[in-house]
Write a structure and sequence with these properties.
With 139 residues, the chain is of the alpha/beta class. The chain has a domain of 70 residues: Nucleotidyltransferase, domain 5 (2-Layer Sandwich). It has three helices and five strands; from the N terminus they run αβββαβαβ. It has a five-stranded mixed beta sheet, covered by helices on one side. Helix 2 packs across helix 3. It is elongated, with a radius of gyration of 28 Å. The N and C termini lie far apart (82 Å). The relative contact order is 0.16.
């Protein structure tokens, strides 16, 4: 009687990578979308200038911030709503009196001349003193 030499082939387990890749792509997409929404407040029609420094500028940390924009056409925006230059100082004084630790942030378009930005900064400084900040784009 002869015994047959049967080689038993051990089954090698296989890892199915497709479901794992689907989960990883979903998580990655989630974090990309969340990071894009948390990058900061944007003002319509205003492209901020970029900084040439090494990124060591102090960040504005205040209880409340009033955002004022200056678009390419020189129009002043108070919280994304157009406002006249004559009404801006009163709106700032009202905001700063209601928010003692608040600050005013100017987001000026990078295409504007320095004179246009400094003229508005002077008006804002006269109304708000030392709590006027200028926004830049760090990217």
């Amino acid at each position: 009687m002869s015994f047959k030499n049967r080689k038993t082939r051990a089954q090698i387990p296989e890892v199915n990578l497709v479901p794992m890749m689907d989960v990883l792509m979903t998580v990655l997409t989630f974090f990309i979308i969340i990071s894009m929404t948390l990058t900061g407040q944007q003002m319509a029609g205003v492209n901020l200038p970029q900084t040439a420094g090494d990124g060591t500028t102090a960040e504005a940390e205040a209880d409340a911030t009033l955002m004022i924009g200056l678009d390419r056409q020189g129009q002043i925006l108070l919280e994304n709503q157009p406002i006249a230059r004559s009404e801006l100082a009163e709106a700032m004084r009202t905001f700063l009196s209601q928010n003692p630790n608040g600050s005013v942030l100017l987001k000026a378009d990078r295409e504007l001349t320095y004179d246009e930005v400094t003229a508005l900064l002077k008006t804002m400084r006269d109304a708000g003193g030392d709590r006027v900040l200028l926004a830049i784009d760090r990217s």
